Amino acid sequence: MNTTTHQSPTSSAAKNILVTGGGGFLGQAIIRQLLAKGHRVASFSRSAYPQLDALGVNQLSGDIANAGAVKDALRRRDVVFHVAAKPGVWGAFEDYFRPNVTGTRNVITACRSCRVPMLVYTSSPSVVFDGGDMQGMDESAPYPAHYHAPYPQTKAMAEQAVMAAADDELKTVVLRPHLIWGPEDNHLVPRIIARAESLRQVGDGKNRVDTIYVDNAARAHVLAMEALEKNPTVSGRVYFISDDNPIGLWEMVNRILDAGGKPPVTRFISPLAAYRIGTVLEWAYRTFRISGEPRMTRFVARELATSHWFDISAAKRDLGYTAEISIDEGMQRLKAWLTKSASPSP
Questions:
Q1: Sign of the C-alpha dihedral, residues 316, 321, 322, 327?
Q2: Strands (DSSP E) along the chain, which ranges?
Q3: Which residue of 27, 63, 119, 232 has the smallest Cβ count within 10 Å?
């Protein structure tokens, strides 16, 4: 039986694929695109998701930091998309190290023992953020000497492990999507909308950032898999991916607020004041062991006041990546989804 798909000239034979974190925002988008190309897909997450049941996806429950569970999930796979991670800007280092670093090492080890030939890893541009502006940087940007949050530090450790693992038996590639957004977002968009009344613009608002619409990010992952199969020189490399359209950070925030029916941010605070507030709040949360997350941290203060956009020429050249969905079109889709979500059920 011919299992070759016919969606595009670049489609290859149907594969047996595992997506870690398949129930998450990006994970689900990747799964939908893989299914559309005729691949067989399973998800490995801590919980079960009705959306994946509806797609007919085999769901495997387990902890990414449990080596045995990861090995069981990777048996007889042709490709692994390792998307699962603990995100965030606050928390103990070990709480991030266990899923992000130990979990990634478990995936690499299981790929070897189960003879999985390809691994696509989802990282983050924050791994090279040193607190200053990053404008048009490419993949040669170095890791900073110091991190102000455990998330970028542990993601940097993990992506280095994935790159170092590349050899003749295991082909790997690392993607760095920046500020993923769109319908079904359960992280960035709802946080912005929930804080609409208390948000303050940090700085003069001139700082520009890269973002990436979720379906563009998912497509980049699928293209990375296809590139690994055809071009061995891609293996062991890292790629920035984005909507290829740097936008003012606060313009983006206001557009998301508008999509959610909220007014724009009108109050301001200086970068220095935001950093000082973050310093005090971090001290207070640690000293008094306050639960939850501070409204401001030093890492967030620097991210909100600086530019961070990247040269994605390498992804265009090696992966054939382009942003098919523009920010304008993505915003229309986001607004429609938010409007529908806010409407009372009949």
A1: negative
A2: 16-20, 40-45, 58-61, 79-82, 118-122, 134-137, 171-177, 180-181, 201-202, 208-209, 212-213, 237-241, 247-248, 268-269, 308-310
A3: 232
User: What string of pLDDT tens digits covers the 346 residues of the chain?
Assistant: 333 333 333 346 899 999 999 999 999 999 999 999 999 999 999 999 999 999 999 999 999 999 999 999 999 999 999 999 999 999 999 999 999 999 999 999 999 999 999 999 999 999 999 999 999 999 999 999 999 899 999 999 999 999 999 999 999 999 999 999 999 999 999 999 999 999 999 999 999 999 999 999 999 999 999 999 999 899 999 999 999 999 999 999 999 999 999 999 999 999 999 999 999 999 999 999 999 999 999 999 999 999 999 999 999 999 999 999 999 999 999 999 999 987 665 5
Report the C-alpha gap between 115 and 118 in whole angstroms: 9
Give the distance, in angstroms, between the CA of residue 20 and the centroid of all CA atoms in the same chain: 12
Q: Cα separation of 149 and 44, whole Å?
A: 26
Task: Tell me how far CA of residue 193 lies from CA of 29, 186, 259, 302, in angstroms.
Answer: 22, 11, 9, 21
Terminal Cα distance for the chain, rounded:
46
Residues 239, 3: Cα–Cα separation, whole Å:
30
206 by DSSP, 3-state: which? coil
Of 151, 239, 275, 321, the active-site residue reads 151
Q: What is the pTM of this model?
A: 0.94
With beta carbons less than 8 A apart as the criterion, state whether 240 and 139 touch: yes
CA distance 55 to 62: 20
Q: Which long-range contacts (CB under 8 A, 24 or more apart) does 185-190 make?
A: 185/25, 185/214, 185/334, 186/24, 186/25, 187/25, 187/87, 188/256, 189/256, 189/260, 189/334, 189/338
Domains assigned to the chain:
16-178+212-244+310-324 (3.40.50.720)
